[in-house]
Amino acid sequence: MANITVGDRVKCQKNGNTDHDFYAKVEKIYENSAYVTITHYDLRDDINVAELQYRAVIALKKMKVAQPTDSEKEKMQAVSAAMLAD
């Protein structure tokens, strides 16, 4: 497991809330997990991610520091500031 810190961009493995891997920004670190804001996700997870309000708590062992490639960005939905607004 890489040393993950607040502000890192990470790739998270699919979990109980999503069916596909996604990318996120780390907002807060806990003992064994991190609170993240989802930045890019598979379109097939659109409803699940919206229900999470684009945020999740993910185990540190289920993420690694990474950013989506250009080809992944074309296939994934990017979260906009409007989506994050209340």
General description of the model:
This protein is α+β, with helices and mostly antiparallel strands. It has one domain (8-84). Helices cover 19% and strands 38% of the residues. The protein has 3 helices and 6 strands. The protein has helices spanning 46-51, 70-75, 81-84; strands at 9-12, 22-29, 33-42, 55-59, 63-65, 76-78. Strands 1, 2, 3, 4, 5 and 6 form a 6-stranded antiparallel β-sheet that branches. The longest helix has 6 residues, at 46-51. It is globular, with a radius of gyration of 12 Å.
Note the topology.
Blueprint: E1 9-12, E2 22-29, E3 33-42, H1 46-51, E4 55-59, E5 63-65, H2 70-75, E6 76-78, H3 81-84
Antiparallel strand pairs: 1-2, 1-5, 2-3, 3-4, 3-6
Number of strands: 6
Report the order of strands and helices: EEEHEEHEH
Indicate the overall shape.
globular
- What proportion of the residues is helical, as a percent range? 10-25%
Q: What is the straight-line distance between the termini?
A: 33 Å
- Overall tally of domains: 1
- The number of helices is 3
Radius of gyration: 12 Å
Brief overview:
It contains three helices and six strands. It is α+β, with helices and mostly antiparallel strands and 86 residues long.
List keywords for this structure.
alpha+beta; 3 helices; six-stranded antiparallel beta sheet; single chain; DUF2187 domain-containing protein; 6 strands; 86 residues
